[in-house]
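I had to read the description of the data format several times before I understood it. Each protein is reduced to its one-letter sequence and a matching series of backbone shape codes. The format is easy to grasp once an entry is in front of the reader. For illustration, here is how one protein appears when written out as sequence plus structure tokens:
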Amino acid sequence: MFEPVIAPSGTLLGLLQRGRGDGTLHALAAPKAEAAVALQQCVTQDPRRDWQVENRSLYYARLWLDLDAGLQTVEDHLFHPDDVTAPDEQRTGLTLAVLGHLAGYGRTDALALLRRYAAGGAGWQWALDELAVRDDDEGLRRLGPAILARFPRTPEGEQALSAAVAESFEPRPWNLWADDPVLGERVRAAQERRSFELWQRQLRPRGPRPDWSVTAVLEWAQQGYEENPGQPRHSAAARCLAAVAVAGDYPELLSAARGGPDGARAAALAHLAAVHDAQALDLIETASQTGSAYVAEVALCVYGCMRSVAAVARARRWVHRDDALGTAAGVMLARRGGAKDAESVRAALLRTVRLHGPDTASLWALTEGAGRLAIRDAAPVLRHIYRETASSQLRGLAATALAVTDPAFGKGFAVECLWDCEETTRELAARSAETADSRVVDQLRRLAADPAEEAGVQTAVRTRIAPEGT
């Protein structure tokens, strides 16, 4: 996946890319042309590092409405030559999702553009899913011939049509076309064919399977690692070992975990950690220091999944280290430690931000742990994470932690969180923001009356204030 270029957090573009509430507030206070350019860049150059879990579309659509921006830039982006030469749903997905929300808000130009792209664009399936929940029956029926024309009447074309029917998130258009007197027979055949293929696949499961012995499973894990290092089998192999291993196999497992080839060693480590073997923690420590990069990564991963009291006790020994093992120990204490571990978690959080920046993966658990343990001394570093991280998910975790560690949260960050791109962050703000600020009351009313807002947010809002006019 591409790595987006994120502007500094103090700039308008940087705020909008991060989906922060302050981005909307600054954009509305900035010259309209400047704000529109920054917004258009975000919509056409997706700034999310993980587009599957981070929300931006509703956030950008609301600001688009407030700025009353035109759609020419969006149209140029969708129908760029890259759409034909290098089709990629990551290039157009956010743009189409924003258009979907705009159509839901009554922008007929956005609805028309979605229809055009569904009929002729490479990412037509995403556009069709947006239309499926926003267009009327007549508009969807008119699209049917253009969509079906994408699939030639050949065995390959019919197979592709069946796959498209199965992969659609919203079945409504296909169900409408199935009732069409011209298109219906072909669509119904595609629906039936795909259902039959799924049934056959369930009856004949495929995939590599090891033989029924510890030696065979370890060899299978090693073979998988050698043939496809990007998709190792250590987790699957560990589950197989749990089924086949007996007491007499312990020496072989121990030997593999200590110094076997990488694939087998990772599988043995994963199995011994899963069964909480007495030597698992020592083996994990050794592997994290002397094993290959792959073995060390697996060792730290399986350690993070351990639930034993011994794993927490060992974390208290490791947490002061400045290496990856020390970070893993900090994560363990953040998830499962007690009040006496608060200072260690705070130190690990601070060290991780200092050494690796505000976006490293271990910060998720450390930030949650700071909130779970209510570490008030962690508020300064949590505020830094909130401001600087490019991940709206991590920012939401930081906001949640600040709500219990920072007494000023209700009249500070909670106010801007009402405009945040993440629904869980807006819900937190709806419960926490102090209404002495007139902007808070106005935004609470807007959220309560907005049909596109999530139910959890509206429920939180309505516990505090009724929509205007009721």
Observations:
- The chain has a mean pLDDT of 92.
